[in-house]
């Protein structure tokens, strides 16, 4: 058997190792961060661990299954997938599903909840990969090469924003800009789109009182330590008390009803308290390696479609990880973006791992052996 054929049958082992390591750390830390709350609320300290573990198993099953499907299959079915995701995004807005903390983001069916916005991030990548491949040099035109993607991505981001989810809507638009840049759009067009998206983000913040309050809290969380600034202050206390080596796994104090729902968006705070700077650095290194391998897969993909897919999927994870860590460390205003593979959330973990199957499939079909 030729070396080239062997190469086509193997996924990127370093990339796969990073994904599995991040999920393993996530499952362990979800248990550590949630055990007190689960024991009090559900009389079972393993409640969140069992659910996260089950979705991790389902996610890995989906990942390995999709990694065996030629990624070009998705190119032929992108339109159908887009219609399904739009239907879900509209369905979640119906009053038949409960509003949680003023937001409508979940389709709840029995014990299972589905968050359509998680699907929207990747369906935009699928659409852009297919369309950019067909567009050729027209990508350098604003009217034919940029505006259509701005409209389509804006449509999906708008539906997500209607769910009161500005953070994921912002992720969709940021990923769109990254993909357009990677596809070869003119820099001036990228700047125009970035400025426009930034202006919309500012408007969405200014005209929504609770978002404006979050921004003001970011500037000075101690101005309202028992109100709007409470969560960020507790996060900083957790990170500070962890010091270099941490308090030890399972020994966080802030997770005991100080940080609200510490197993979700602020799980990185608990990691910092229990595992210290060393643990946080290790996780950030894993994400950096993941991004580097994702870029390598994109550079070595055998066609433009595979390149755009790899760039988009990698960007989704990278943007979310950067935003989450920035929020937890007080580097940007508080927003609800989970830490990929680590924060608690069944549908998020399952969909992210399914997308990883697509990325791994691209890594199996490379044109040469260049790599980082």
UniProtKB/TrEMBL annotation:
Biological process per Gene Ontology, one example term: peptidoglycan biosynthetic process
PANTHER family according to UniProt: CELL CYCLE PROTEIN, PEPTIDOGLYCAN GLYCOSYLTRANSFERASE FTSW-RELATED
InterPro entries listed in its UniProt record: FtsW, FtsW/RodA, SpoVE
Metal-binding found in the keyword field: no
Catalytic activity annotation: [GlcNAc-(1->4)-Mur2Ac(oyl-L-Ala-gamma-D-Glu-L-Lys-D-Ala-D-Ala)](n)-di-trans,octa-cis-undecaprenyl diphosphate + beta-D-GlcNAc-(1->4)-Mur2Ac(oyl-L-Ala-gamma-D-Glu-L-Lys-D-Ala-D-Ala)-di-trans,octa-cis-undecaprenyl diphosphate = [GlcNAc-(1->4)-Mur2Ac(oyl-L-Ala-gamma-D-Glu-L-Lys-D-Ala-D-Ala)](n+1)-di-trans,octa-cis-undecaprenyl diphosphate + di-trans,octa-cis-undecaprenyl diphosphate + H(+)
Pfam family name, one: FTSW_RODA_SPOVE
Compartments (UniProt record): Cell membrane
Transmembrane stretches, start-end: 12-33, 53-69, 81-100, 106-129, 141-160, 166-183, 190-210, 275-292, 304-329, 341-362
Species of origin: Clostridium grantii DSM 8605
Protein name: Probable peptidoglycan glycosyltransferase FtsW
UniProt pathway annotation: Cell wall biogenesis; peptidoglycan biosynthesis
The entry's keywords: Cell cycle, Cell division, Cell membrane, Cell shape, Cell wall biogenesis/degradation, Glycosyltransferase, Membrane, Peptidoglycan synthesis, Transferase, Transmembrane, Transmembrane helix
Family membership: Belongs to the SEDS family. FtsW subfamily.
């Amino acid at each position: 058997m030729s070396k080239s054929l062997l190469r086509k049958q193997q996924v990127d082992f370093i990339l796969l190792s990073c994904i599995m390591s991040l999920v393993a750390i996530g499952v362990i830390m979800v248990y550590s961060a949630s055990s007190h709350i689960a024991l009090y609320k559900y009389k079972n300290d393993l409640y969140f661990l069992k659910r996260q573990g089950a979705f991790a198993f389902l996610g890995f099953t989906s990942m390995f299954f999709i990694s065996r499907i030629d990624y070009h299959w998705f190119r032929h079915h992108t339109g159908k997938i887009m219609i399904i995701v739009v239907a879900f995004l509209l369905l979640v807005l119906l009053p038949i599903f409960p509003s949680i903390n003023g937001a409508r983001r979940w389709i709840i069916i029995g014990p299972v909840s589905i968050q359509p916005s998680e699907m929207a991030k990747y369906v935009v990548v699928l659409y852009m990969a297919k369309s950019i491949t067909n567009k050729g040099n027209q990508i350098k035109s604003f009217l034919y090469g940029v505006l259509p993607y701005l409209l389509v991505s804006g449509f999906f981001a708008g539906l997500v924003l209607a769910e009161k989810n500005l953070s994921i809507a912002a992720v969709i638009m940021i990923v769109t800009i990254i993909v357009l840049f990677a596809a070869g759009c003119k820099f001036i067009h990228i700047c125009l789109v970035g400025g426009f998206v930034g202006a919309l983000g500012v408007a969405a913040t200014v005209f929504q009182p609770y978002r404006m309050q979050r921004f003001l809290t970011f500037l000075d969380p101690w101005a309202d330590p028992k109100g709007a600034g409470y969560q960020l202050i507790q996060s900083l206390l957790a990170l500070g008390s962890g010091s270099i080596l941490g308090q030890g796994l399972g020994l966080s104090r802030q997770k005991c009803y100080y940080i609200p729902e510490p197993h979700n968006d602020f799980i990185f705070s608990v990691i910092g308290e229990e595992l210290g700077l060393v643990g946080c650095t290790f996780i950030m290194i894993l994400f950096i390696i993941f991004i580097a391998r994702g870029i390598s897969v994109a550079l070595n993909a055998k066609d433009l479609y595979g390149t755009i897919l790899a760039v988009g999927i990698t960007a989704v994870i990278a943007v979310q990880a950067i935003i989450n860590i920035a929020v937890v460390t007080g580097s940007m205003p508080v927003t609800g973006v989970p830490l990929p593979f680590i924060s608690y959330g069944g549908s998020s973990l399952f969909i992210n791992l399914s997308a990883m199957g697509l990325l791994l499939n691209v890594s199996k079909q490379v044109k040469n052996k260049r790599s980082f």
